[in-house]
Amino acid sequence: MTRPGHDLTDDGLPKGGVSLVEVPALAISSTDCRARVAAGEPVWYLVPDGVVRYIDKRELYRR
Prior knowledge:
30% helix
């Protein structure tokens, strides 16, 4: 997968064993995610479902 600031190349990778995928960069900040949770706003579209469940189960980032 692509990552901002890094060139995606297949140098040194096994032929046919790895697929390079370019995706658009998303500006997702962990600080913003924590602030959203603290404000009672959803983060389900910003982080994986398992992370959302973990945050809810452990009541993380609540004020």
